[in-house]
Amino acid sequence: MKQNETVLRVRYKDTDQMGVAYYANYFIWFEVGRAELMRSLGLTYKQLEQNEIFLPVIEAYCKYKNPARYDDQIRVVTTLRFLQDVKLGFQYEIFHLEKDTLLVHGETTHAFVNKAGKPVVLRKQNPFLWRILRDKLPEM
User: Fold this and answer.
1) Cα–Cα distance for residue pair 126/11, rounded to 1 Å
2) Do the beta carbons of residue 83 and residue 107 sit within 8 Å?
3) Which of 24, 67, 76, 97 has the fewest CB atoms found within 10 Å of its own CB?
């Protein structure tokens, strides 16, 4: 499975009064990791959208283990879990960079849809984009 790592710093605006990262920010960090993984495959979200392929989240999960705090550096490890005709799934682990402590793990599933929001079979709708994804993932 294809994997990518992204390092971020927890900003002050990402935290509450106690300096702890607000729970919803982890989903934003998942998105950053996902976009960077796609970029590492040679395919950006911008390219997908220019080809009228969109990836809405249809499922999301996050298990919180330890808090991230203001000014911590975090490492977002994103893995493409599966690629199917009409959807794909990602797995995430976020670690405290210096301590290498697992902060959260989660998953998201995304549908391939057109501009009208209707599901599409990517390999039929855009075989070129399908091949880009599949060629980078020979073990899937």
Assistant:
1) 38
2) no
3) 24
Q: List, edge to edge, every strand of the sheet that includes 57-64.
A: 3-9, 73-83, 87-96, 102-111, 57-64
CA distance 51 to 138: 24
- Show the tokens assigned to 105: 């793990």
Summarize pLDDT for 61-89 with one digit per residue, the tens.
999 999 999 999 999 999 999 999 999 99
92 closest CA partner among 35, 15, 17, 14: 35
Q: Under CATH, which number does the domain 3-135 receive?
A: 3.10.129.10
- How far is residue 138 CA from its own chain's centroid? 20
Domain ranges of the chain: 3-135
Helix residue ranges per DSSP H, 16-140 = 25-40, 45-50, 122-125, 127-135
Whether the predicted model's global pTM rises above the 0.90 cut: yes
Which residue in the block uniquely carries the two structure tokens 């070129």?
128
> Which residues are registered as beta bridge partners of 62?
106
